[in-house]
Specification:
Elements lengths: L1 H31 L13 H12 L20 H15 L14 H5 L18 E10 L2 H13 L4 E8 L2 E11 L2 H13 L5 E6 L1
Antiparallel strand pairs: 1-3, 1-4, 2-3
């Protein structure tokens, strides 16, 4: 009985040691083996991370409101003018064709997030199918927008703050209006610009 008991204990100890060795071998194999698909994920470089941080730092929600500088007619190179001259001479030798009307694109409507608006065919002559807003800034923080609205209130303007998603960020827009006539909106815009404010005219379909 003593001999059998000793053999059982020895076998148990040997089995435990073998199990630990096998578990250690499996762990080493798993840690050294490459993980599937890990090399297929694109890794970002430190330069890309720095560029992302710099872009977020310099992001300006009012950038779409700044108009692009117009290209002067006299600044076009001579090489670009030559094909135009050839096309003009060719057009004079051909019978004139009536151009097809193209739908008017409104940059202000695109800026405000509205779809590209065209004049409805059923609109009555003399009736403006749009309403107008004067946007006096867009901010990434709601407290900045409220501060701008309060400052306009001291100047006698009743502004409103609207929220919108732009470029994956929440933008708080400060606007005056709506104005039923374009002339009223342009007059308000001119007064604000005279006072040093950045004001943009926004057109929205009724």
């Amino acid at each position: 009985m003593k001999y059998q008991r000793g053999g059982f204990v020895m076998g148990l100890i040997v089995g435990l040691l073998l199990g630990l060795a096998l578990a250690l071998a499996v762990a080493l194999y798993v840690t050294k083996a490459p993980v599937p698909f890990i090399n297929k994920v694109p890794q970002r470089t430190p330069e890309q991370d720095a560029a992302e941080v710099e872009r977020n730092k310099n992001w300006d929600p009012n950038a779409p409101l700044v108009p692009k500088p117009a290209v002067r007619a006299g600044s076009a190179p001579a090489a670009a003018l030559a094909p135009r001259a050839v096309a003009a001479t060719a057009a004079t030798s051909r019978p004139a064709l009536a151009p097809k009307p193209k739908p008017a694109r409104d940059p202000a409507a695109i800026l405000s997030g509205q779809p590209v608006a065209t004049a409805p065919l059923s609109a009555k002559p003399g009736v403006d199918p749009f309403v107008y807003f004067v946007q006096v800034g867009a901010f990434s923080k709601p407290e900045d927008a409220e501060q701008q609205r309060a400052r306009l209130g001291l100047l006698g303007y009743a502004a409103k703050v609207t929220e919108r998603e732009q470029s994956g960020r929440t933008v708080y827009r400060v606007r005056l209006g709506p104005y039923q006539l374009r002339g009223e909106a342009e007059s308000t815009q001119a007064k604000l610009q005279t006072g040093g404010e950045t004001a943009a005219l926004v057109r929205v379909e009724r």
